[in-house]
Design brief:
Blueprint lengths: L3 E6 L5 H7 L4 E6 L4 H5 L4 H10 L3 E3 L18 E7 L9 H15 L3 E11 L21 H6 L3 E8 L26 E7 L10 E6 L2 E6 L20 H14 L4 E3 L7 E2 L13 E3 L8 H6 L5 E5 L19 E4 L4 H9 L8 E9 L11 E12 L3 H21 L6 E7 L10 H9 L4 E7 L9 E10 L7 E9 H9 L12 H4 L20 E8 L8 H12 L3 E11 L6 E9 L8 H18 L3 E2 L1
Parallel strand pairs: 1-2, 1-4, 2-3, 4-5, 8-13, 10-15
Antiparallel strand pairs: 5-7, 6-7, 8-9, 11-14, 12-14, 15-16, 16-20, 17-18, 18-19, 19-20, 21-23, 21-24, 22-23
Helix pairs in contact: 1-3, 6-9, 6-11, 13-14
């Protein structure tokens, strides 16, 4: 194991550095801002400096924490941990001055910290401005430490009480730049780590074979980093795959089972019910615009994914048309068409449980549990008429058993699963997931989950639906049961993940919490992320229906999913003209990476430009 390199800043009398030096192996560099002769006059300073030097530590004076790279050669600049206890500009400096100090300090740390290093900042009670502070100051009166760190690319990964007594021999000093004690009761240690950098995804082109023709299409911007993540592949330890495999294993013990995960096209074509159109990711196919070899070589096509589109079987004509030269298709919003296709094929065997799984894509409103892409699992089973309810109950019972088994292995919290008749839920109670499913066809039951760790309605979150339909075969007395599950929502509820975006993070710290596919309660590596509020007001176009889902989708695109909440603040109709104006509030907050005020300001400006251009609204 490599020795750790530790840097201590702003030491008053070096007593903390001396206490730490005995417990840390490796290189220790202890520094202070004052000159050596100033420090030497302080109590305990000379003794602490002597102890440090005896143990091989480096002791430096007159070190400015905002210019750290200036004090170390390039080969000596990479520290594993940087400590800064109770930073302060000195004397009676106010909140604003100390914020400026912290902001410049974090930027300086970024230049000398190892990629997986830590920055430890101890602050007095209430200064940090996070919910961990008790009592908590008003935000404007705090040092806003998490937001300042975010400006330099850091996230708060841990916070715990500062235990002065744990550092044997430590004496705090420096109150108002004097050799005086100050109170550390209620002080907190804030542990910051580097954030993954912002994703700047280039346009992505997918190339497919459709009816023996080679066709390309551009992936919608909001899906570029999600369309080919491979969470369900064999080498994946993602929790959605673990849950999928658990369902498959339990159901295979009760039914003959055939899993069909291959050759499921990302694209569908044809007509949809009228209510679905605003939720669909439409793509324009361009057979004549396939990038040339020269464009590919030069990178002008940016990126290409290859897919083979194999529309096997006779799909429902309402879901897939039989166009010979399609010009417009859409990314699959459901795996239901493939389930409908299998029951019409000659290979279909009643009494066998067919299982489909894969990502599906739907435009939706911004919320912590409403996702534009998720992994769906569909079960198809044909039974004799009159026994469909017992079949539904058996399938649901097996799903319940699987979920309870997974949940009880990692948590003592209460989890309940219920099958709700579709008629018992009003339209207002339906989530975006359930509402869209209702547009795909009649639903008999909703499968709902509720846990103590999530706020939800009395009936819980809808994570699945169950449908039945007659088996269309001459002389048949069979009924086909279709059950569909949102695996992402199930994973969130079992593992206590409170934001769907965390399932799709590129930060390796997420998957490290689920080694070899083992489910665990998720512990966030980004605590108390800063949020920023921006309002936007505009006049609606005359005579046109405002597309609320498109509005939310544009917010997702321009922010890289950094918008956590959108809500309508106000609406207004101008007397005389009848023109309608609305005002929306957007809350920007990232659950997994640093998000700075400057980044958000740029996102808001771009958002205003995009809605003006694409939704034809008049900004106010």
């Amino acid at each position: 194991m490599a020795e750790r390199c530790v840097l201590l800043l702003g030491e008053g009398n070096f007593s903390f550095a001396a206490a730490l030096c005995g417990a840390v192996g490796g290189r220790v560099v202890a520094t202070c801002y004052e000159r050596e002769e100033e420090v030497a006059a302080r109590r305990r300073a000379a003794e602490s400096i002597r102890r440090l030097r005896e143990r091989g530590a480096e002791v430096l004076f007159s070190v400015d924490c905002t210019k750290l790279k200036d004090y170390f050669l390039p080969s000596k600049r990479k520290f594993d941990c940087i400590y800064f206890n109770f930073p302060h500009c000195g004397r009676k400096a106010g909140v604003v001055k100390n914020r400026e100090l912290l902001a410049r300090f974090f930027h300086s740390c970024a230049e000398v910290l190892m990629q997986d290093g830590e920055v430890c900042v101890a602050l007095c009670r209430g200064q940090g401005g996070t919910p961990a502070d008790q009592p908590r100051r008003e935000w404007h009166n705090s040092w806003q430490v998490v937001a300042l760190a975010a400006g330099a690319g850091f996230i708060l990964s841990d916070v715990h009480p500062f235990r002065a007594e744990a550092a044997h021999g430590y004496e705090c000093t420096g109150y108002r730049s004097q050799d005086k004690f100050f109170c550390t009761e209620g002080a907190l240690n804030h542990i910051f780590t580097r954030s993954t950098p912002p994703l700047y995804c280039k346009p992505l082109i997918c190339e497919i074979e459709l009816e023996s023709r080679r066709i390309s299409f551009q992936v919608p911007r909001v899906l570029v980093d999600k369309i080919s993540r491979g969470f369900l592949e064999l080498n994946s330890n993602h929790p959605v795959r673990t849950i999928k495999e658990k369902f498959t294993a339990v159901l295979s013990q009760a039914f003959p089972l055939q899993s069909i995960d291959y050759c499921l096209s990302l694209l569908l074509q044809g007509c949809l019910s009228a209510g679905c159109h605003s939720n669909i990711f439409w793509v324009l196919l361009s057979p004549e615009e396939t990038p040339s070899a020269e464009e590919m070589a030069s990178g002008r096509a940016n990126a290409i994914l290859f897919f083979h589109v194999d529309f096997h079987g006779d799909m429902d004509e309402n879901v897939q048309g039989r166009c010979q030269t399609p010009k417009q298709c859409y990314l699959r919003p459901s795996l239901l068409p493939y389930a409908q296709a299998i029951i019409k094929s000659a290979a279909f065997v009643p009494g066998t449980l067919y299982v489909f799984s894969g990502p599906v894509f739907r435009k939706c409103r911004v919320s912590p549990y409403c996702m534009p892409v998720f992994h769906e699992m569909v079960f198809v089973y044909a039974v004799s008429r009159g026994s469909e309810n017992s079949c539904i109950q058996m399938v649901v019972d097996k799903i319940k058993t699987s979920i309870h088994s997974l949940h009880q292995s990692i948590s003592d919290s209460k989890l309940s699963i219920s099958l709700q008749e579709a008629t018992s839920l009003g339209t207002a109670e339906l989530s975006d997931f359930a509402a869209f499913e209702s547009q795909l066809g009649k639903i008999q039951f909703f499968l709902c989950m509720k846990t103590d760790t999530w706020d939800s309605s009395e009936k819980g979150f809808c994570v699945g639906v169950v449908r039945t339909t007659p088996y269309e075969s001459a002389g048949s007395d069979l009924v086909v049961v279709f059950a569909s599950l949102n695996l992402d929502l199930v994973a969130m509820l079992i593992c206590a993940i409170d934001d769907w975006r965390m399932l799709w993070t590129s930060d390796a710290r997420f998957l490290r919490q689920f080694p070899a596919g083992e489910l665990r309660l998720f512990k966030s590596f980004s605590l108390y992320p800063p949020s920023y509020v921006h309002d936007v007001s505009f006049w609606l176009p005359d005579g046109e229906q405002f597309d609320d889902v498109a509005f939310h989708t544009i917010a997702r695109e321009v922010s890289g999913e950094a918008v956590a909440c959108i809500h309508l603040l106000d609406s207004f109709q101008q007397p005389g003209t009848g023109r309608n104006s609305v005002c929306y509030r957007l809350t920007f907050q990232s659950c997994d990476r640093a998000l700075s005020r400057k980044e958000v300001a740029a996102m808001q400006l771009r958002f205003r430009e995009e809605i003006s251009k694409r939704l034809r609204v008049a900004l106010r």
